[in-house]
Design brief:
The protein contains nine helices and 17 strands. The chain binds zinc ion. Zinc ion binds next to helix 4 and strand 13. The site of zinc ion (ZN) has 6 residues, from helix 4 and strand 13.
Length: about 350
């Protein structure tokens, strides 16, 4: 896991619809490793590496993160937010955020913790996101306007990237899904001087958190034979969850099913055989709420042979979530071995496995 790349990706502010800071980081690291950089019309980045056989493989990591935009500013200078993506209201109070103005200026703010309703029951009720306020420490609306703040400006959790007390555990803002963006970048870097059979498309997709929108346009643009969405999956290894079998540190995740897609069974078997052959740790899991870019990717054209590979993530969709380096490294090894191994003949065998 390349901390320089991952830290830069996590610190970039990239609310859904405002992802350019993130795709620029990806471009910086991938441009020397690929033949061409392209974009779809929504801003998703697609880095293309030419192969030797007529088959197309697409890897995606979504570049957007959850957050809010300025809905209105009241006379006292408080910002009232509109949320984009699924924020958890209970995790927001007293957190530091960053607003990015149209001119690119960065303003720090704090999410207010007021309980304005007299009926509010302390420690029982949660203030809905749209009723929370963001406090930028000014006297008035005019103060904020003078700083360049306008309706629609994006507000994201403030940047954070911290190795914890065992070096395998790293907490950051926006692991969802800078993990995927990082895997896309690092796979391209690892294959820089390696000849592979497939044409490979390394993509950073926009607007996943609000409905897999970049995945749809990138899927249509590339029409991949095989597609792999790289993302985080919420693990259940905290003390609050008695099941706890899907855990940090037990390897990357081959996602069998979620609400957006069901993995191609032939591809799952093929990837698991690669893991066994190369000693790569993996877990299998499924989730009953949420999905990934695969929800759009698998149904492009006549269909794409598809799976999601994820990294288990604690405290997903909060300002500070935790991943494990070993899980990330397993996913990276699997992707590199897969791209070195896959060819037209193996694609045909995968297609035949469903006939
Ligand atoms: Zn995600």
């Amino acid at each position: 896991m390349n901390d320089v790349v991952l830290k830069e990706l996590c610190l970039a502010d990239g609310l859904s619809g405002y992802e350019k800071e993130v795709t620029r980081v990806m471009k910086k690291y991938m441009a020397p490793c690929v033949d061409e950089i392209r974009y779809d019309n929504l801003g998703s980045l697609v880095a293309y590496k030419k192969g030797s056989e007529p088959l197309k493989v697409l890897l995606t990591g979504h570049v957007d993160e959850i957050g809010m935009v300025v809905r209105s500013i009241d006379e006292k200078g408080y910002v009232h937010p509109h949320q984009l993506g699924t924020l958890f209201a209970h995790s927001l109070g007293a957190q530091e955020v960053t607003l990015t103005t149209r001119e690119g200026k960065k303003l720090k703010g704090i999410i207010g913790t007021h309980a304005k309703d007299p009926q509010f029951q302390l420690n029982k009720d949660t203030i809905p996101v749209q009723d929370q306020i963001v406090d930028f420490g000014v006297y008035s609306k005019k103060d904020l306007e003078d700083l360049g703040v306008r309706i629609g400006d994006p507000i994201t959790p403030s940047g954070y990237y911290q190795e914890l007390n065992h070096p395998d555990f790293v907490a950051a803002k926006a692991w969802d899904d800078r993990v995927g963006a990082g895997l896309v970048v690092e796979t391209a870097m690892a294959l820089k001087d390696v000849k592979v059979a497939p044409d490979v498309y390394f993509a950073g997709t926009v607007q996943e958190e609000v409905g897999l929108r970049g995945a749809k346009t990138v899927g249509q643009m590339v029409e991949p034979d095989i597609s792999i969405a790289l993302d985080v999956y919420p693990c259940n290894d905290t003390t609050n969850d008695p099941k706890g079998e899907y855990a940090l540190g037990k390897g990357c995740t081959i996602c069998l099913a979620d609400t957006s897609s069901i993995a191609h069974t032939g591809l799952v078997q093929y990837l698991e055989e690669l893991c066994e052959k190369h000693g790569i740790a993996y877990q299998e899991t499924m989730i009953s709420r949420g999905g990934t870019d695969s929800g759009e990717l698998h149904r492009v054209g006549k269909g794409s042979v598809n799976v999601s590979i994820a990294i288990p993530n604690r405290y997903v969709h909060t300002q500070r979530s935790i991943i494990n380096r070993q899980d990330y490294q397993s996913a990276l090894s699997l992707l590199v071995e897969f791209l070195k191994d896959i060819n037209l003949e193996k694609l045909q065998a995968l297609l035949a496995s469903k006939q």
